[in-house]
Write a structure and sequence with these properties.
single chain; 229 residues; alpha/beta; Rossmann fold; seven-stranded mixed β-sheet; two-stranded antiparallel sheet; 32% helix; 21% strand; binds 5-O-phosphono-beta-D-ribofuranosylamine
């Protein structure tokens, strides 16, 4: 099945861009494509990034947000990817896309998540806490903020001299590597959510960036299989 992916974003859309670039690099091996980018902010840069790639860019006003399940169904969307989307997604969508809707969070859940924990608030809390590790979490989306089952997490160090801004940069860099790979695996049907709410994936090594290696020159266009290590 060729996945038809919708990306929801409220801001700059750098994760959207990383996803588009990664799928472009995969070429024929891409398990689908992004066919819709939708935003609750009419002037979101994410919408502009979509237009540049001739992808439908849709502003979601309050009515459209309520009708999002219909909008997605009309376009035969198979997967929903939240990339810096600041709203709780309607339950009609989370229910219809159970196991096919994901989010990236800029910390290691279940720490530093939940309502109000977004953007700079997350990194401020991380630095204030004194923790020496943060990272990125990709998780399934359910009806509660930052609550769905965790699919993958990559860590980054938090140094003594770090500020929320420097941590944010380090986390975003790793999000750009991790998120597209998880989305590709999800779109290919290799990551699933079973009936008991457990994540099923053959990629138990998914949690560690050094198994993927450098992003340069397409060094790692696919997850390594466990047998390769
Ligand atoms: C990312 O840090 C992501 O973890 C969070 O929102 C930010 C979005 O950044 N959910 P961008 O719009 O993809 O640049």
């Amino acid at each position: 099945m060729n996945a038809r992916i919708a990306v929801l974003a409220s801001g700059g859309g750098s994760n959207l861009q990383a996803l588009l670039d990664y799928f472009a690099r995969l070429g024929d091996k891409a398990p689908g494509s992004v066919v819709l980018v939708a935003s609750d902010k009419a002037d979101a840069l994410a919408l502009e990034r979509a237009r540049r790639r001739d992808i439908e860019a849709l502003f979601l006003d309050a009515d459209a947000r309520r009708d999002l399940a219909t909008i997605l169904a009309e376009r035969q969307i198979t997967h929903v990817v939240l990339a810096g989307y600041m709203r709780l997604v309607a339950e009609s969508v989370t229910k219809a896309f159970r196991g096919r809707i994901v989010n990236v969070h800029p910390a290691l859940l279940p720490s530093f998540g939940g309502k109000g924990m977004y953007g700079h608030h997350v990194h401020e809390a991380v630095v204030a806490s004194g923790t020496r590790v943060s990272g990125a979490t990709v998780h399934f989306v359910d009806e509660v903020y930052d609550h769905g089952a965790t699919i993958a997490q990559w860590p980054i160090p938090v140094f003594a001299g770090d500020t929320p801004a420097t941590v944010a940069v380090r986390v975003l860099e790793i999000e750009h590597q991790l998120y597209p790979r998880v989305v590709a695996e999800l779109a290919a049907g290799r990551i699933t959510l079973d009936a008991t709410g457990r994540v099923r994936t053959p990629h138990d090594l998914i949690a560690f960036p050094h198994f993927v290696g450098s992003d340069e020159a397409g060094a790692a266009d696919a997850w390594p299989s466990p047998q390769e290590h």
